Amino acid sequence: MSRGVFISFEGGEGSGKSTQILRLAESLKSSGFQVVVCREPGGTPLGEAVRDLLLKIRKDPPAALTELLLLESSRSHLVQQVILPALKEGRIVLCDRYADASMAYQWGGRGLASDLVRNLNKTATGGLTPDRTVLLDMDPSEGRRRQGRAGMDTDRMESENLEFHSKVRCAYLSLAKEEPGRFIVVDAAQGIDQLAEEILRQVQPYCLERLTPSGKTFGKTEGGIHHAP
Fold first, then answer.
1. Would the pLDDT of 1 be above 50?
2. 8: annotated binding-site residue?
3. Is 216 annotated as a binding residue?
4. Which of 100, 111, 132, 219 would bridge with 226, disulfide CB 3.0–4.6 Å?
5. What is the pLDDT of residue 219?
6. Stated pTM of the model
7. Thymidylate kinase-like domain spans which residues (predicted)?
8. Residue 215 marked ligand-binding
9. CA-CA distance, 108 to 167, in Å (whole number)?
10. What is the pLDDT, as a whole number, of residue 165?
11. Residue 214 assigned to a binding site
12. Which DSSP string corresponds to 64-90?
């Protein structure tokens, strides 16, 4: 049975993940690859409900462990319903955040025990790890300035203070240092086009090693993911 390619995107707030994941998806599709795009939390009706609950609630926010457990429930459902089926069909899956995000935010930012987060990640994903992880690295203060220039409304996570986001960044860089063969660390402060070119240059050769472009694109976009026709 063919096995597709699983690529996750990680990074702090304002680093441009959403823009870059869509740019990469379009480039890969134009080269003939079949691509599925999803996000965390979200990517399924259940996941989108969890996303709204976690990011929009302002009064009585969840405790760190409650937050982690909600994220893991959404993650488990996404893996079973979207990611694994797509990989079994030989697709490229691009996921906007994945298990590393819980290590960065709930371990690095919230201070939960590393072993707890790692074990829950493993349980929720069944041990499924991305083939490559693109980390868009940026100083949190610059990410905040970007969001301000764009006039973006901030959700509960984005509204955390700079100390929290600095801890998240440090956690991400620590994870990348642990697994240099999986992580692709890029400077997110560079221009959008230049960044997109760098990501494509590093990701496309790996996809070509693993898959043969079919000349077909995959499905239509609904609710943050590409569904099979």
1. no
2. no
3. no
4. 219
5. 38
6. 0.89
7. 9-199
8. no
9. 5
10. 93
11. no
12. HHHHHHHHHHHHHHHIIIIIHHHHHTT
Lowest average pLDDT, out of 89-93, 98-102, 157-161, goes to: 157-161
Q: Which two tokens stand for residue 214?
A: 């079919």
Residue 14 counted as an annotated binding residue: yes
3-state helix, strand, coil in the chain (%, to 5): 50, 15, 35
> What is the strand order of the sheet 132-137 is part of?
35-39, 92-96, 5-11, 132-137, 183-187
Confidence of residue 227 (pLDDT cuts 50, 70, 90): very low
Residue 122 has pLDDT above 80, yes or no: yes
Q: Is 148 annotated as a binding residue?
A: no
Q: In which residue are the tokens 């965390």 written?
A: 40
Better pLDDT: 218 or 156: 156
Cα dihedral across residues 86, 88, 94, 95: positive or negative: positive
SS3 of 90-143: the string is CCEEEEECCHHHHHHHHHHHCCCCHHHHHHHHHHHHCCCCCCEEEEEECCHHHH
